[in-house]
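Design a sequence for this backbone.
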């Protein structure tokens, strides 16, 4: 993870079209620098729409520029034509575990006879 002040802990993670962002989204409806995710001292995350960026919504509500908003698991961020779902680490790991179990179950099931 990156940290803006050069310290050792996690710092803002930026999303946008430009290649220097942490998360690059190659879509013309996304600004070069769209928003930043900031860790909170409690272990959560906030999202902040960057100045001069295109509109962002969180769960359908507009996100004002430079006004961070706390994120919860399952929150949907929409930027132009792009939709993203926020997951914290525990919910992400749980989701990946469920998907892996489904894939393994499908792989273990023999194909139907022809």
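Sequence:
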């Amino acid at each position: 993870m990156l940290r803006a002040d050069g310290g050792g802990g996690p710092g803002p993670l930026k999303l946008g079209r430009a290649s220097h962002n942490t998360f690059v989204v190659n879509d013309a409806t996304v600004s070069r620098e769209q928003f930043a995710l900031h860790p909170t001292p409690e272990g959560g995350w906030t999202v902040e729409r960057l100045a001069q960026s295109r509109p962002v919504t969180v769960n359908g509500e507009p996100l004002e520029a430079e006004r961070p908003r706390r994120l919860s698991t399952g929150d949907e961020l929409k930027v132009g034509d792009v939709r993203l779902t926020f997951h914290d680490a525990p919910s992400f790991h749980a989701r990946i575990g469920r998907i892996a179990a489904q894939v393994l179950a499908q792989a273990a099931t023999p194909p139907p006879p022809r």
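The longest helix spans residues 89-108.
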